[in-house]
Amino acid sequence: MTFRTGCDAIWCRAFSLSLEGEALDWFNTLANNSIVNFKSLGEIFKKQFAACSMEEVMVVDLMNLKQGKEESLKSFMDRYQKIVRKVKGLSLELALQYVMPALRLGSFKDSICRNPPHTMEELRQRAADEARVENMKQNYRREQQEAKAEKNDNKKAEGSGSRPTGPKLREGPRGPRFPQYTPLNAPRTRILQEALSTQILPAPAKRPTPPGVDLSKRCLYHQNSGHDIEDCVTLKDKIEELIRMGRLQQYVKREDVRRHEELPRNEHPYSRFESPPRERRKEDRGHREYDRPPRDEGRRTTQRDRSRSWGGEQRGPLRGMINTISGGFAGGRPTSSARKRSIRALRSIHVVDVPWRTMPPITFSDEDFHAPDPDQDNPMVIDIEVARYRVSRVLVDQGSSVNILYWKTFLQMDILEDLVVPYDEQIVGFAGERVDTRGYIDLQTRLGTGRESEEMKVRFLLVEAHTSYNILLGRPCLNAFGAIVSTPHLTMKYPTRRGTICTVRSNQKMTRECYAAGLRIYPKEERRKISRSEVALADLDPRTNTEDRLEPVGETQPIMIGHNADQTTSIARGLPAEIEKELQSMLWKNRDLFAWTATDMPGIHPFVMTHKLSLYKDARPMSQKKRKMGDEKRRAIGDEVRKLKEANFIKEVTYTTWLANVVMVKKANGKWRMCTDYTDLNKACPKDSYPLPSIDALVDGASGHKMLSFLDAYSGYNQIPVYVPDREKTAFMTDKANYCYEVMSFGLKNVGATYQRLMDRVFAEQIGRCMDVYIDDMVVRSPDEGSHLCNLEEVFGQVRKYGMRLNPTKCTFGVAGGKFLGFMLTSRGIEANPDKCEAILKMPNPSALKDIQRLVGRLTALSRFIPKLAERARPIMKKMKKEVVSKWDLECEQAFAKVKEILMNPPVMNRPSKGAELQDTETRYRQVEKVAMALLHAARRLRPYFQSHQVVVRTNHPVSKVLRKPDLAGRMVGWAVELSEFGLRYEPRGSIKGQHLADFATELPIADDDQWNLYVDGASGKNMSGAGIVLEGPNGFLLEHSLLFKFKTSNNQAEYEALVAGLELAKDMGARRVVCRTDSQLVVGQMNGEFQVKEDHLSRYFHKASALIAEFEKIDIQHIPREQNSRADLLSKLSSGKDKGQLTTVIRQVLLQPSVECHSITTNATDWRGEIRELMKKQDDGKDLRPAETKKIARFLLIGDDMYRRGFSTPLLKCLSNEEA
Predict the structure, then answer these.
(1) Per-residue pLDDT, 529
(2) Are 1152 and 1025 in contact, with CB atoms under 8 Å apart?
(3) Is-contact 1052 1098, C-beta < 8 A?
(4) In this structure, which of 111, 413, 504, 1097 has its CB flanked by the most CB atoms within 10 Å?
(5) Which residue, 853, 838, 897, is CA-closest to 872?
(6) Are residues 591 and 498 in the same domain?
């Protein structure tokens, strides 16, 4: 909003329009007459909100900079360089002086101390070298840890659970670990399958079969021979361990439940499961570890007595602990080795006397109840202060092991992102989902907003997620403050350093608003991680059809846009020197938008676009049978899978329900392309009817421009991630493993619609103005060179904003023309594709039906450039319509030669150009007057043609009626007189299509898919006879016909009557293709020529039905069982009824005599309209009429097949015959 005024009163009043929230509330509280002018208002505002101003980065911030304990050297150097650039007036000596104190102890700090750098470039180079060495060491340590962990897992899987007491090995089978086992209600084979599928029991390594064992017995658990799965001791022990941990409870036999309930209260139902002495000692030690009593003996005795008096209500062992959020800095740092050290420290901490933490007693009473609704189960949501910001909607979660500051909240605090310490570990939610973090930061935090509240430094993890809360406080923060939370009171209390108790209350209204808003948030999807991969994008392009791809016309030259010599793209040769220099500079500046390997593609964020399959609810998973492949194809599949894995496009999956085969396709260069057969999966997915752009409109819009740039993102399919729940449905099988796609794969249904939806969102402001996009083909167009550079810069900005990447080898910039969607675009207009023209010119004369169909298809592709193609190709069309193709005759040869003659020099099509603009008064004309004026201008410009030919004007506007009205006045009178000399003929406009394609479209042999279904049935009885007819048409049309015969008929005669009546009904409804079904096997056999017609009365019906069949384009008579013809059978017995939701019409008719005895009577009455039609036809053919004849037909006109008469002041009057009248 811009104000151009010098009045302070207006400035002061408009100032509030730029405020919101707390600032707007402050402005509304200003007293009347307290503002003198706008300058004083600005000073008051600055004083009020001085604390909210952005803090300037000072040298002190650089002095306090420290490298984190887990922070890599590369991340630290990035933060250091950002702060150095933001400190104003910082000298090089000071910048290099403060780097050594900020580094943690290590080899790089020693190197800086021994040999200080002299320039920032030297420091960056040495840091980069050290970072590479550090990364190599980390990778080596990680590989060693993974190898060691895998070795330990293999040892555990082999059953080495107990520690060996000596070098002597165990001989013979191992005995059971438990004296008694829980009875089961299912075989162990089924329990093993359940445990493996849910991954609660790891699969052991395959063991070799010992020598000298019974090979007839097979163990599915160890995958060897020698014993059955029911006799496997190891599996019995594993299942018993899982049951005692609370798992697999559905397989526990429940026969003794009532008997357990009848036991004494001091006897536990599971007391018969005695543990061995070692196990019992271990459990006792565990209780001493986790239930550590106080040092007060009296309190210990009381607690012991209380535990003993628990009686029959004693609970079994806990099944585990479920946290809301796990990970972070709780539990001994993020690494597995650090967590193990934390557990070992917990076991050894009881050996020494550790001083206990002391806290004053904190109590909650009835006075702490403050919620308006006492009957509540709301979470604890409070207000806190973080970094001198008051933050509301803070969730207190005692089940979270981390404190979370959401990224959207962090961005509102105006805190430098350089202060964020990188943190690469993930946090785990209660359902096992893993969420990425963006680092951590330590901020001063005050619980509550009152005077008694305390402030302390709290470490927050930064997480980017959609949530209704701003901050989540977990156990680390609560334990640091010593806070106690009471959810019934919705109150939290913690002791302060002054010895008082600070009380923080929750706002119940805000709590419920956050809870309701949180239910509407969808879960955050992970972005695809890209590892270092050298797989070229061209190797991952799944498309095989490249005929109509973007292709520039004219000479091009490569320019280098990368650090390597082979990293080039193409620009047009012969551009002006200044334009070429600016174009090269722009491409070099935006070189990061071009991808050379899969590493350079960050991928589209899932919040922007994901590909969802949206399967039908009743779709059943399909697993295809594995197909056999040759050695060459198997090696090619292995290479393709390796490339996809390196690019992180696929991942290995197990226990998938959808599984497809791979299909190898030979490329033009002889290499293999791996595709996936998603036939079954695509059938289970509905079609996405997202509208694709019109190719004709795109070509018309892109033509006629002076400069074009072609952009290609053919790996764009791989940049869009697949919706996480749908990824395993894209699984495919190989010889070694099964994999699924994490990115959108070529071959899936609706991938084109998904990509077009993305393009419409990314380039919403550019499409139609300076850019045209059809799925993954993009062209940037401009009328001149100067505006083209601006348009390219705008497009590059959108590409960078959404994280897209372009293929430099397929992009061409600044050309004058090129191929786009199969058409040749130049500054002159749209030209025919020379390759397609050459294909027709070199094509020999067709000799078979397929050759004719191929020729017609090629002509259709170039129909825009062949005038009157329908008329010229009519002889060829006649050959294609015949079922048996006759020889290529002279007429076809002449038509083919005329088409070739046109294609030798095809015309150039131009876009409609704007003509002279209307004057101000003409713009206010009515629409019909504008049409009449356009007709007048056309008659003046084309006067010779109007005078020598009969001109037909097709329009939907009533121009002819207006020009012939007797009460015309003004300019319309002059126009009517001027146009009257040409004898114009007006007709209504037909369907709005391209007029150059209208004739050709009418001649195309398009098959009519409108099939009609006819069901007939006849019934003959002693008292009455009848027939039933059901005719089903397209779009749910249903016609029911019931016939009642007043004459005696046999059953076969009734069936023929039904057939004849049904055919006549289908003929009257205009059906051309009919499938007739009847339950009379005699009628079907005689009509199909299988049975002979012997009876005379049936022969008459046969000939009449055959005559009716000859009037249809195609008719098929089939026999069906009576139960499938129930509706017609009911109608034949005069039953009635209709189904809801259908357009139904029931017709009842009574026949007094057989249909073969009825005779039609025709009259030869003359029609008075015939003479007028003949005269109008003569006039249309260009023949001269006498003045009397011209006067006679002057007021008549034909609209379709109907004749109308013009009135003087009335609408058109329809002319009727004597019979119609």
Answers:
(1) 46
(2) no
(3) yes
(4) 504
(5) 897
(6) no
What token pair was written down for 417?
């992102």
Report the candidate in 1184, 1212, 1217 with the shortest Cα–Cα distance to residue 988: 1212
Helix (H) or strand (E) holding 1197: strand 1196-1199
Residues 627, 770, single domain; the answer is yes
Give domain status of residue 812, yes or no.
Answer: yes
Pairing between β-strand 812-815 and β-strand 568-572 as defined by DSSP bridges: parallel
Q: What is residue 882's predicted lDDT score, i.e. its pLDDT? A: 56
Instruction: Based on the fold, state whether residues 1202 and 1058 are members of the same structural domain.
Output: no
Measure the CA angle with vertex 1195, ends 1192 and 1196; round to 5°: 90
Helix axes 120-157, 73-86, angle to 10 degrees: 150
A 10 A CB-CB count for 1123 gives 8
Nearest alpha carbon to residue 193 among 245, 244, 235: 235
Q: Is residue 175 part of a domain?
A: no
- Tell me the two tokens of residue 365: 């009473």
Nearest residue to 529 via CA among 430, 472, 598: 598
Contact in structure between 1057 and 1154 (CB atoms under 8 Å): yes
Spatial contact of 449 and 505, defined as CB atoms under 8 Å apart: no
Both tokens of 814, joined, read: 């600044």
Per-residue model confidence (pLDDT) at position 682: 92
- Same domain, residue pair 1067 and 1152: yes
- Same domain (yes/no): 783, 842: no
Check whether residue 476 and residue 501 sit in a common domain: yes
Let me know if residue 913 belongs to a domain. Answer: no
What are 660's strand-pairing partners?
Answer: 732
pTM: 0.41
The token pair that represents 18 in the structure block: 């730029």
Q: Hunting for tokens 């004719």 — which residue is that? A: 852
Phi and psi at residue 1045, in whole multiples of 5°?
A: -95, 130
Cα 1031 from Cα 1011, distance rounded (Å): 11
DSSP class per residue in 1017-1048: EEEE-SS-EEEEEEEE-GGGEEEEEEEEESS-
Max Cα–Cα distance, the chain, nearest Å: 135
Report the CATH number that the domain containing residue 897 is assigned in CATH. 3.30.70
Beta bridge partners of 831: 824
pLDDT at 522: 47
Residues in the chain: 1221
Rounded to the nearest 5°, which phi and psi values hold at 154?
-65, -35
The residue among 306, 312, 215 whose CA lies nearest residue 267 is 312
Q: Is 712 helix (H, G, I), strand (E, B) or coil?
A: strand
Domain boundary among 489, 518, 547: 518
Q: Is the dihedral of CA 127, 128, 129, 135 positive or negative?
A: positive
Cα(180)–Cα(134) distance, rounded to whole angstroms?
A: 54
3-class secondary structure, 382: strand
Joined together, the tokens standing for residue 1054 give 């009734």
| 684 and 815 assigned to the same domain | yes
Q: Which CATH number does the domain housing residue 442 bear? A: 2.40.70.10
Do 755 and 795 reside in the same domain of the chain? Answer: yes
The DSSP bridge pattern shows strands 812-815 and 707-712 to be: antiparallel
Q: Which residues of the chain have pLDDT under 70?
A: 1-6, 51-55, 149-176, 199, 254-357, 372-376, 424, 430-432, 511, 515-554, 714, 880-886, 911-915, 966-969, 990-1009, 1132-1146, 1158-1165, 1207-1211
Q: What's the pLDDT score for residue 542?
A: 52
Q: In the numeric block, which tokens belong to residue 503?
A: 């009380």
Is residue 319 situated within a structural domain? no
**Residue 733: its H or E element:** strand 732-733
Domain, as residue range, for 671: 537-827
Q: For residue 937, what are the CA distances in angstroms to 454, 927, 946? A: 87, 15, 12
Q: What is the DSSP string of 293-343?
A: PPS-HHHHHHHHHHHHTTGGG----------SEE-TTTTTSSSHHHHHHHH
What's the structural domain count of the chain? 9
How far is Cα 1155 from Cα 1100, in angstroms, rounded to an integer? 10
